[in-house]
Amino acid sequence: MLRHRFMQVALILLALTPFVSVPAAEPAPASDDLRVMSFNIRYGTAQDGENHWDKRKDFVVETVRAFAPDLLGTQETLGFQRDYLAQALTGYESLGVGRDDGGDRGEMMALYYRTDRFEKLDGGHFWLSETPEVVGSKSWDSSLPRMVTWVKLRQRAREDAKPILFFNTHYDHRGETARIESSKLLRRQIETIGEGCDVIVTGDFNAPEGGAVYQALFANDGETPSPVVDTFRAFYPERQAAEGTFSGFRADAIAGPRIDWLAAGRGWKVIDAAIDRTAKDGRTPSDHYPVTAILRRD
Questions:
Q1: E strand map for 128-219
Q2: For labelling alongside 105, which of 18, 19, 180, 266 has CA 20 to 30 A away?
Q3: Comparing C-alpha atoms, which of 202, 78, 186, 172 is closest to residue 132?
Q4: In the predicted model, is pLDDT for residue 26 greater than 90?
């Protein structure tokens, strides 16, 4: 009986006690780090035998997916390759036009960005010539029209942050003067189009580290520092022998010059940088190794 009365009193007290909920722990915020990849995928109509595009295109996609970039800059991309990647890499939007006519003719500097992370604010193209606004133009000793594709992005999760201005390019493979002048032009455009933005540049520059082409982009202009830094060298200050980025489809080809660069504005901290040595059965997914960086806003 006493036990029954005690239980009744306990239930009444419980009913009168205010219910206090314990708030669930907030989920950890998503990483704000930015994953960037530059990848010369080799034009898809090249007579490459066992390394033809049709035999390696899935390998290219696998390589990109494995790194899972937020931003991807490709070079030597033909229209059907741009479209194949756009279809295979779900969750990305692409931008790229042919260097010959600003349409579908010629190789593209096709770039890709994650739509769940970014909203496009603007985008465009300019040619690496004395008349950069003229479609298909070339100058100096350039053997072919060369160009830059760019996109201006707002980060959806951080609308108060600076926009990101992403440039992607491919310099001429023959003209040394054209490459030097292309670096000067790109640097001016970074400072003009990229004003007020956090800048990222990807590309195949067809030039070694330390030469005149490299210096024109990264060296001080008098006392004025370049608006961008070489992410690989920022992360690895000591130069090594095995830093080559042209593979010729051979997994053992790791020497030679580092001609593929990934640059970032001075508002970024370089968390990681790498040359992706992915290979299968001694073959690489393209004749260039992709280069990558993980960046964080300072």
A1: 147-155, 164-170, 198-204
A2: 180
A3: 186
A4: no
Say what the pLDDT of residue 159 is.
84
Residue 254: phi, psi to the nearest 5? -120, 0
- 3-class secondary-structure state, position 255: coil
DSSP secondary structure string, 118-180? EEEEEEEEEESSSSTTSTT---TT-SS--EEEEEEEEETT-TTSPPEEEEEEE--SS-HHHHH
- For residue 75, give both structure tokens: 């070079």
C-alpha dist (Å) from residue 27 to 30, 118, 157, 158, 171 = 9, 21, 15, 17, 45
Which CATH topology does 31-297 take?
Deoxyribonuclease I; Chain A (3.60.10)
Q: What is the pLDDT of residue 227?
A: 98
Q: How many residues does the chain have?
A: 298
Chain segment 150-176, per-residue pLDDT in tens: 999 999 998 889 999 999 999 999 999
Q: For residue 7, name the pLDDT band (cuts at 50, 70, 90).
A: very low
In the chain, pLDDT over 70 holds for what percent of residues?
90
Given a contact cutoff of 8 angstroms between Cβ atoms, the answer to whether 146 and 172 are in contact is yes
Burial class (CB in 10 A: 0-12, 13-18, 19+), 29: exposed
Backbone dihedral angles phi then psi of residue 147, each to the nearest 5 degrees: -150, 175
Residue type at 206 in one-letter notation: N
Q: SS3 of 237, please?
A: coil
- One-letter identity of residue 275: I
**Closest Cα to residue 77, out of 59, 94, 58?**
94
Q: Does position 2 have pLDDT exceeding 80, yes or no? A: no
Determine the pLDDT at residue 25: 35
Contact assessment for residue 41 and residue 8, using Cβ atoms and an 8 Å cutoff: no
**Rounded distance between C-alpha atoms, residue 213 and residue 94, angstroms:** 28
* 39-55 pLDDT tens trace: 999 999 999 999 999 99
- Residue 176: name the closest of 130, 143, 145 by CA: 143
Q: How far, in whole angstroms, is CA 149 from its chain's centroid? A: 12
Confidence check: pLDDT of 8 > 80: no
